[in-house]
Design goal:
By secondary structure, the chain is an alpha/beta fold. About 35% of the residues lie in helices and about 20% in strands. It has a 5-stranded mixed sheet with strand order 1-2-3-4-5, with helices on both faces. The longest helix has 17 residues.
């Protein structure tokens, strides 16, 4: 998380809150996040990229990956390769979800970017774009 902007940090916090509120399995939710309050409990790398959030129930019956992006970052080819790698990873995991948190009023443009990256193989993934800080 070193070198992240305050806006990105706020987006990660929004993402963590949203996922915790949305997913409440009976056996509990394991949440790992790239945020200072999580210490060394960081998400695992996926295809060379570290997501801002990784979550699953225990034992794992679903997995969640979350990313927080400013618009300038989201529109880079690196971020798009990263999101595609996460969608590919989730496509073989039943009940999986991908969350993208973006600044206020950027949901529509961000959803269009993610939709353009989706392939038929990603059809079973629940995708949600959240805007706001």
């Amino acid at each position: 998380m070193s070198g992240e902007t305050r806006a990105h940090t706020l987006l990660v916090e929004r993402l963590i809150s949203h996922v915790r509120a949305r997913h409440r399995p009976p056996s509990g939710l394991l949440v790992l996040a790239d945020h200072h309050t999580f210490g060394h409990n960081r998400p695992p790398q996926i295809a060379g990229y570290t997501p801002d959030l990784f979550a699953s129930d225990l034992p794992a019956t679903f997995e969640v990956i979350g990313e927080a992006k400013t618009m300038a970052d989201l529109e880079t080819s690196r971020s798009q390769r990263q999101i595609l790698a996460f969608l590919d990873y989730l496509s073989v995991r039943q009940g999986s979800s991908f969350y993208l948190t973006v600044p206020p009023f950027q949901r529509r443009r961000s959803a269009a970017i993610v939709d353009a990256l989706r392939t038929a193989a990603h059809g079973n993934i629940s995708i949600e774009v959240i805007d706001g800080l």
